[in-house]
Structures are given as structure tokens and as C-alpha cells.
Amino acid sequence: MLKTSCLNIPFANPLVLASGILGVTAASMHKIIRDGAGGVTVKSISKAPRTGHPNPTMMGNDTYFLNAVGLSNPGIENGIAELIQFKKICPAPLIGSIFAGTADEFAELAELIAVAPIDILELDLSCPNVGREFGEPFAYSASAIGRITRETKAKVKVPISIKLSPNAWNIAELAKMAEAAGADAITAVNTVSGMAIDVRARRPILHNKQGGVSGPALFPIALKCVYDIYEAVKIPIIGTGGVMTGEDALKMIMAGATLVGVGSAVYYRGADVFGKIVAEMTEIMKQENIGSLDEIRGVAHGIM
Amino acid sequence: MHIPQMLSIKKITDENPFVKTFWFNYNLNSQPGQFVMLWIPGIDQKPFSIAYDDSAEFGLTIFAVGSLSKKLFELRVGDRVGISGPYGTAFSIQNDTHYITVAGGYGAGPLGLLTERLAATTNSTVDFCVGARSADLLLFKDRMAKLPHTTVQVATNDGSAGHTGFITDILSGLIQKSHGKKIILATCGPELMEKKVLDCANKNNVDCEVSIERFMKCGFGVCGQCCVDPLGLRMCMEGPVVNRATANSISEFGNYHRDKSGAKIYY
């Protein structure tokens, strides 16, 4: 009932682990598949290892989750070893994720990671937590997104998905530009910029001061982004941002998503949240006589 | 909610020349083996095991080894730090059992708290085994010696107190001595010491509980930094304290761990 095909890759269900939550190691990603996900996205990888920001890097309350991990990762060499190990122990679809400081570096890194058995490559050009070091120069620039997409596509055969920022007021335009430049899919959205302050400490809680907001507070923002992007492009969308429940996942699909990224829900409902969401989706689909996700994809647009 | 609470340091006591305990008036309601995250704004936030918790106050016993703990050693009574938790799994507390707790370094903290709870709430007996380089560095020897049905066992590398050598040298002897009783080995300390304790438990076929430390960012199961191979268990949630079967299933235990970036570091 939940079987989904995205870019001709079969997924047992549309739920994929979003990049940056768990997903540091092959073993951790395999556990997420055992817990019910249809696919996984590795935590974003850079050329050299990075330790990320000092702590606190994450915090959460009932309405939002906030993080500024600072793109810590073991570097491309160790990262590829984990991706190879994952495919050795698990046949589920694997989404690679990379970030870099320039279009040239994106293309170079894509070429390196393409030796790993990844099914889709996500370009994380919209992390809100590393300021001008990465992300920000590209996240809001249609021309930069076009250039990175084109240069990367020229180097690799693996389908690429461009991960966009909800901070961009013109996210649908950016998605259109990515599509025109050859992107195979859009991942929408990254976290939205935010901050928390501790009154007694009189300081921002995150060491990085600002961070990315996810969790329930991000959901309506992400849903609108996916809805707008669906009207602008024909390529599939990995709808990500604040999905907590089966109901949320179905809303994402009705807005036009093909796959549904799940991240912070691990914080709110545990690592086995994937299985819970699958069960909830199945239950609602039975009640609503929905036979397959293809029946309802984009249905909220009223054009079907 | 996983947000630090700013708590005032109520007192600071010396445990040995290099180790202090920082006390807070707060009902943490923790179980022995659990940990808290301690935040000093602008510096860092790290996990610390809990060495004292009597529901009126709790104490963190700390070596000054990194930037955060060094900064903490500069703070005074009345200064505030951010505490979140308690997090993670705990050692079991069972009746009719002979516990052999094996501590190295700051591992004496959670095992000291465990031994206190066992003495106060069970009829179990305890061999509290603690090792150090020399007699002046031994932690909680006097604190444990006061407890009922508890025997303190000491080893020092230089022979200045107790057995000369490693604390793990005396384990088989202690197991033989208590045969007939249900035995649990509980260990916390340097991983290669813990591995020897686990090996000893396997050899003698007795229960074992091991506290496995891995690099943690969040402490509440989201960042994935503390996941261990090959099952991907999170040491902040499914650990740090794991039973013998789980410890045996963790192939990286005693072999390698991952650093702050996620790269493997072999022991």
C-alpha cells in the first residue's frame, strides 16, 4: 500500500531518514531501516573531517527542536567507508549527502562520493548553521544553485536532489532553477533559522547562538514550500520538515511530495517513529479508501 | 524537555589532589549509572556521570581534563551552570546478590552511588573494587568503607595501597570466594579495563553490567554520535549501562570508538 517509486528506485514506504538526525554510521542507518524507514539519508559529508560546533548543539521542547551541530562529519574517505558498509548489510535505498564551499568543490566531492553505492545524491546547499562558511552564499541565490547543479550533474551519473532552505522567500523559483539546471529531485526543506535564549544564563542556548528550527513548528512552513514547489516543477520532491505522524506524512504527499523525510520526530516519538508513522498512514488510508500513494499525490492542488 | 536548567553550585569538595565534587541542591531523581549534561555558557556542554544523589542534593565528581572541566574548576560556590538530564540507562539494583563493582578513574562515581544504594535498599553484599596509580589517587575508599555489607578492595600500580598491579587481577579470586551466591560484576572506567572485566564475567559465566562511554553531542538520542557497531545502539539511550549479552554483541567494544567528527579511533 505504501510502496513508492522515486526516480525508478523502489522504496518499501515513502519515509526516509532526513540528513543530520542519527545517520552518522552504517550501523545507525541500518537500525533506522529495521525500525521501519523506507530509506535513509546519511549525515552530510564534506571533503575533510569536521568536528562541528561546541555544545550545546541541540535542544528541544514541545513545539520546536533547534540544532546547530555545525556539519560535523568524518570526511569523505571515512564517509564512503560507512556508505559501502551500509549497502553490505542492508539493501534499502541510500541517499548520500554532501556540502562544500564552492561549485567546483561540490562537483569534485560528488565525483568522489559517486564511487559509493548511493541511490540518490543530495546536495546540502542550505544549512543555516555555518554562516558564510557554507550554505548561505548559495541557499538564496538562483544563479549559484543553477551553477552548482549543472557542474555536479556534469560529473556524476547518480540522480541528484537539491536541498533547499525555507528561509528563501522564492523557494519555488529556486526549485525551478535547479530543475532547469538538471536536478533530478528537490529536497524541501532544510531547517529554518532560529534561536533560543536562556533567561537565567542570559545567553543563547546553542553555542553557535543561532540554529535551525525543526519539529512541529517547521511542519506548516515545510508543507507550504512543498505545495509551492509542486506547482513549479515536474521532478519529484522529498518533502521534509516537522513530519511527526502518519497524518503529517499524508499531508506532505497530498501537497505533492514523493518521498517524506523524517528527522526530529526521532526526538519526539523515539527511534521507532518510522514504524509508528507507517502504521498510522496505513490505518488512515484504509479508513479513507486510499489504495496507493499515487492516488493522492498532489491531490490538495485540486487539479487531479 | 531537554533544555539546561541553570543551577547554583552549592559547595565544592576535594576528593583527591586532582578531583573535586561539585554539589547542587536539586532533586535529580537519578539512578546509578545515569549521567547529566553540564553546560557552561560560551564554553561547552558535556556528559558527566553522577557520583552522589540522595534526592536532596546531587554531586558530580570531576577531573579537570578538558576545556569545560578546567573552566568548571575556576568557578566558585554560587556560580551557576546548566544541567540537563538525567539521561541513559542505570545499573540494576537487586536483592540476594553479591555485587563486585570494578572502578577505574572517574568510574568510581557511578559505582560509588550504586554501592550506596545497594547498601541502603537491599540485602546484597558488595566488593567495591577501585584501582589507581597510587594510594593518594584512590576515589571513595573512605566513603565506601563506612557502608554496611560492603568490602573495599584496592589495587595500586605502585603498590602504595592494596594489591600491586591492576584491579582486574583480583577479580577471579573474588568470584571464587563468593561462589554459590548470585554474582553481578558492574564496571565503569577505562574501556580496556572494562573489557577485562567482561572477559572475566564470560569466563566465569556470571552476570555483568558495563558502562560504555562514547562521544555524545545531544545526550538524548538524536545526534547519532554515540551509536555503536554493529547494531547501531545509542549509548545515551540504550546505554551507557548495558548487560553482558549486549556488551558481547558490541563488536567495537575494547576495539575502537568514534571521535567528535565520527571517525574511528582504535584503542
Give an overview of the whole structure.
The complex is a heterodimer of chains A (304) and B (267). By secondary structure, chain A is α/β, with parallel strands linked by helices. Chain A has helices at residues 26-34, 75-89, 103-113, 136-139, 142-153, 171-180, 219-232, 246-255, 265-269, 273-287; strands at residues 4-6, 9-11, 15-17, 39-41, 58-60, 65-67, 94-98, 120-124, 160-164, 185-188, 192-195, 197-198, 203-204, 210-214, 237-240, 259-262. Chain A has a single domain (4-301), classed as Aldolase class I (TIM Barrel, Alpha-Beta Barrel). In chain A, helix 1 (26-34) packs parallel to helix 2 (75-89) and helix 5 runs parallel beside helix 6. The longest helix of chain A has 15 residues, at 75-89. In chain B, a hairpin with a 4-residue loop joins strand 6 (52-53) and strand 7. Chain B contains 6 helices and 19 strands. At the A-B interface, helix 1, strand 5 and helix 2 of A face strand 5, strand 15 and strand 16 of B.
Number of DSSP strand runs of chain B: 19
Percent strand of chain A:
15-25%
Structural class of chain A: alpha/beta
What's the CATH topology name of the largest domain in chain B?
Rossmann fold
Determine the mean pLDDT of chain A: 95
In spatial order, strands of the major sheet of chain B run: 12-11-10-9-13-14-17
Sheet/helix structural class of chain B: alpha/beta
What is the CATH architecture descriptor of chain A? Alpha-Beta Barrel
